[in-house]
Specification:
8 helices, single chain, elongated, mainly alpha
Length: 223
């Protein structure tokens, strides 16, 4: 069975004297469906829906902690909610009834999170709001989704499932689709700008090396 027809291709540009405007394509090594889903502009509409849903959920979670019903326990409560959540994880781990199932994580919660609950609560609040806003705007979508997964893992390690597995799964797909997940968003401008910035640095470095090793005109060859 020939699987080559299943493989995706990437445009290389260029041409030949016979076909100067032609565009060559090279195999990417990926399945065509994967290339379409994670690279094509057409699939960006799918990721727009996923982004907006996940972004709203994160933004609402942070909003409740900053201005809503959970404000007293997070932003103004000295981190009471974080301290209680962490202590619940430690207690559940000690009792063998869930909570922080790993001893090293229970120790981290007890020795670091509980004493620093006040500023950690504010950090979590700001992080959730920022993740929500960036996902909705489609700015650095892959990195933002990775930050969301990090929070999901922290919550799950501490013993809370809830919506975290669903959030993590959607975030994982957005990370895989980082090239086109934010195309209907600010990534359409931001990602090419970042790429050009790095390429400009490479070009400048190559030019500098070229000038360094260039033989002056009229120089005698070394024998």
């Amino acid at each position: 069975m020939d699987l080559r027809s299943w493989r995706g291709t990437v445009a290389l540009g260029g041409g030949t004297p016979e076909n100067p405007t032609g565009t060559f394509e090279a195999p990417t090594g990926n399945i065509k469906a994967s290339d379409w889903l994670y690279r094509s502009k057409a699939a960006s509409g799918i990721w727009l829906v996923a982004r907006l849903w996940l972004g709203y959920e994160w933004l609402n979670a942070g909003y409740q902690k900053l201005w809503g019903a959970e404000k007293a326990a997070f932003w103004n409560g000295g981190g009471a909610a974080v301290k209680g959540f962490a202590m619940g994880g430690v207690t559940g781990s000690t009792a063998g009834k869930g909570g922080a199932s790993y001893g090293w994580w229970a120790a981290f919660l007890h020795n670091f999170v509980v004493p620093n609950a006040s500023w950690i609560a504010k950090l979590i609040t700001v992080s959730e709001v920022a993740i929500g806003v960036l996902l909705i705007m489609g700015l650095f979508t892959g990195a933002t989704a990775a930050a969301g997964i990090l929070l999901n893992l922290i919550y799950m390690f501490t013993g809370s499932a809830g919506v975290n597995p669903a959030f993590a799964i959607v975030s994982l797909f957005l990370i895989l689709a980082w090239r086109n997940a934010g195309y209907v968003g600010l990534d359409r401008v931001a990602l090419p700008a970042v790429r050009n910035l790095f390429h400009r640095g490479d070009h400048t470095r190559r030019e500098t090396q070229r000038e360094t090793y260039r033989v002056p005109t009229g120089a005698m060859p070394v024998h």
